[in-house]
Design brief:
- The chain is mostly beta strands.
- It has one domain.
- It contains five helices and 18 strands.
- It has helices at residues 6-9, 50-64, 104-107, 130-134, 140-143, and strands at residues 15-19, 27-28, 41-47, 79-82, 109-112, 117-121, 152-156, 160-165, 176-177, 180-186, 198-200, 203-205, 207-212, 218-223, 233-239, 247-252, 268-275, 278-279.
- The strands form five sheets. The protein has a six-stranded antiparallel beta sheet with strand order 1-3-15-10-17-4, with helices on one face. A six-stranded antiparallel beta sheet has the order 2-14-13-16-8-5.
- A hairpin with a 5-residue loop joins β13 and β14 (218-223).
- The protein is globular and about 50 Å long.
- The termini are far apart.
Length: 281
């Protein structure tokens, strides 16, 4: 468990739903902002347990619409979710692979990493010893927790995860865009500007999301809110009024392996929630 100042502890339980026009400097569009820039609605929260972020996650779900499960598209509205749990009760650790196509056909999402691959694993236990065994670090069994049991999602050999979207049921043959994307993270300890991880100019932070349009232009980017202490949870997501997000880049903490401490903020991912993929016209 890390040691934090009383000022740091005061941010535990942070809960906010903000429009981009009222954001602090930790949430911003980067690069040259075009005149036709459209600000998304931002949903963010962080705290010591699932209850700390539950209402924000629920508000984000409601903004996207009803769940569509594994139904084939095209569907006019709704949302897709991935909780990495194999339909419930599965705690096996999967071998890291990239591209990660498990949900490509059923939910229209493909994930890649420049590292070894992406894996699903419980924080502890399981047939392959969960994250502790995957990274050969027993401390991970108590460092992380889940928002929806039993498994988390993580890149191996990198801290970068990239998401692309396709029409569900097309097996990746029809590119798509989404109106919103959000993700749950566990153990984001370092807030904007204080971490040694991702560098953007002279700024450093633990965990960052970047949202891109079809032309590859950066639509929006933000650091994920932090909460001190082990087994904390954070959520960050945005929605637009139309499906303009073609891809998302996630930089989640430091590259996993070493102990999670004040020098190395190791972060894992849980639920991904995104708007119904709409085929590119």
């Amino acid at each position: 468990m890390k040691k934090f100042t009383l000022l740091s502890l005061a941010i535990v339980g942070l809960l906010s739903i903000l429009t981009a026009g009222n954001l602090s400097e930790t949430t911003h569009a980067q690069g040259n902002t075009p005149k036709d820039f459209v600000a998304p609605v931002v949903f963010q929260a962080a705290g010591p347990n699932a209850a700390s972020i539950q209402s924000t996650v629920d508000a984000f779900r409601a903004a996207l619409g009803n769940p569509n499960g594994n139904a084939s598209g095209p569907l006019a509205s709704g949302r897709r979710e991935i909780n990495w749990d194999g339909g419930g009760g599965v705690n096996a650790t999967t071998a890291p692979v990239t591209p990660f196509n498990v949900f490509l056909n059923t939910r229209g999402a493909q994930f890649t990493t420049p590292g070894i691959g992406l894996s699903q694993a419980p924080p502890s236990g399981g047939p392959q010893d969960g994250l502790a065994g995957l990274f050969n670090n027993p401390s991970y069994a108590t460092t992380f927790t889940t928002f929806s049991p039993l498994r988390l999602f993580t890149p191996v050999g990198s801290n970068e995860t990239n998401a692309l979207f396709f029409l569900p049921g097309s097996n990746g043959s029809v590119p798509a865009t989404v109106s919103g994307f959000g993700a749950v993270f566990t153990d984001v300890d370092q807030p904007d500007g204080s971490g040694p991880g991702t560098k953007r100019g002279n700024r450093g932070s633990s965990t960052l999301l970047e949202f891109f349009g079809l032309d590859g232009r950066l639509l929006f980017s933000s650091f994920v809110p932090a909460s001190p202490g082990d087994r904390s949870l954070s959520f960050f997501g945005i929605t637009f009024s139309d499906p303009r997000i073609a891809s998302v880049r996630i930089i989640a903490g430091e590259v996993a392996g070493p102990d999670d401490d004040q020098k190395n903020d190791i972060v894992m991912m849980d639920d991904f929630i995104y708007g119904e993929p709409q085929p590119v016209q």
